[in-house]
Amino acid sequence: MMKYKRAQSQISPSPRPYRMVKRQAATEKNRDRILAAARSLLLSEDFSEFSMEAVARKAGVIRPTVYYQFKSKAGLLEELYNYIARRGNMQELANVFRYGNDPLQNLHEFIRFFVNFWQSDRDLIRRLHGLGAIDSEIGQGLRTRNERRRNGLRVIVERYECSYVQLTPLENPIAIDTLHMLTSFETFDALAVPGRRLEEIIATIRKLAYPAIRYIPKFGPPR
């Protein structure tokens, strides 16, 4: 009888993995609710009251649950930035640098990519930028991500100088700063007025970018 019980215990599935899967599913569900609540709060009229406690109330959870999931407001915002990035297909940015060997074409695609990215969740991004001016945690998160965009432009300009025009030591940082400004959300938001198509915005930014890198188009508009 003892041998039978021992053999049965060896073949019987343990309930522990099932419980772990169920607990993980509940955790992910809470996480999604909290992120949805954070996004909803940022898009509401009283978005300036954004806080961990406000997010918890909106999500219908206790505040410790929010801290357990995200550790801090900075952690919650970082995950919200990741949500925006996924929504705007940020993972495809690397493809811009694989677009042939022409750095000018890389720049064209970089501009196109960010115009479409800013458009993907424009209202939420505008709110985050507005809050970033008065909230240091939000502002720091935005600055960190903007620096990544600057680094991408730095790579493009370096490649451009090897293939087209060698900029002077004074022109190089100004070119990068100018391109960084032109591909920013603020520039996109200012140009994206009602009735103006995204293709028109892309073409405008490209034309404004050319003087910064001393490029003179010879055969009409870029593809």
CATH class of the largest domain: Mainly Alpha
Oligomeric state of the chains present here: single chain
At CATH level 2, the architecture of the largest domain is Orthogonal Bundle
CATH fold descriptor of the largest domain: Tetracycline Repressor, domain 2
* Helix amount: over 70%
* SS elements, strand count: 0
Output the number of helix runs. Answer: 11
Beta fraction of the residues? Answer: under 5%
How many structural domains can be distinguished in the coordinates? 2
Radius of gyration, Cα only, in angstroms? 24 Å
* Weakly predicted, low-confidence segments: none
Shape: elongated
Order of helices and strands: HHHHHHHHHHH
Counting helices, strands and paired strands, the structural category is mainly alpha
User: How far is it from the N-terminal to the C-terminal residue, by CA?
Assistant: 80 Å
Main pleated-sheet profile: none
Overall pLDDT: 87
Could you describe the 3D structure shown?
- The protein has 223 residues and is mainly α.
- It folds into two domains: 14-71, Arc Repressor Mutant, subunit A; 88-213, Tetracycline Repressor, domain 2 (Orthogonal Bundle), CATH 1.10.357.
- 70% of the residues lie in helices and 0% in strands.
- It is built from eleven helices and no strands.
- The longest helix has 28 residues, at 15-42.
- The radius of gyration is 24 Å and the shape is elongated.
- The mean pLDDT is 87.
